[in-house]
Task: inverse folding
DNA sequence: CGCCTGACGAAAC
DNA sequence: GGTTTCGCCAGGC
């Protein structure tokens, strides 16, 4: 997919004065929760949606507290740009990530999502940004 | 206060 | 076209 829009303007509404408050985490979790079942997205996509596309690492790093958040965050639906389950080692059982994905209809082979582009869920697009 | 690390991504080789 | 390096930004030590 291609970068068609620049959510920077919308982000400005969410992030007044470009302040990097911990709200960034909340936003990441918020977007991650919006991922529909049977769909997957990438850290970079979420980052781009938030406006910090250059900091995809921050998104992934933010997921470190995904299990600490009250509403469950489907972190298993978030993979890297390559469609690889790089964060599976961070799950309670390492293999639970692909297990959940498979249960939702996502085919996973060797820690990699099959037809990643087909199951890809663009936050910026689906959220109306 | 400075250096290292990290669930990524894109450019360079 | 696969592998390696650099860049990003925030947190931990």
Result:
């Amino acid at each position: 997919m291609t970068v068609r829009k620049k959510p920077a303007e919308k982000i400005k509404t969410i992030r007044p004065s470009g302040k990097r408050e911990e709200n960034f985490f909340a936003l990441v979790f918020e977007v991650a929760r919006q991922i529909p079942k049977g769909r997957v997205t990438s850290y970079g996509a979420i980052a781009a949606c938030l406006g910090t596309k250059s900091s995809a690492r921050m998104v992934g790093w933010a997921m470190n507290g995904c299990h600490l958040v009250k509403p469950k965050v489907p972190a298993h639906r978030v993979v890297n740009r390559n469609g690889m389950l790089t964060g599976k080692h961070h799950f309670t059982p390492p293999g639970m990530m692909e297990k959940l994905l498979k249960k939702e209809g996502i085919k996973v082979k060797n820690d990699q999502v099959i037809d990643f582009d087909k199951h890809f869920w663009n936050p910026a697009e689906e959220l109306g940004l």
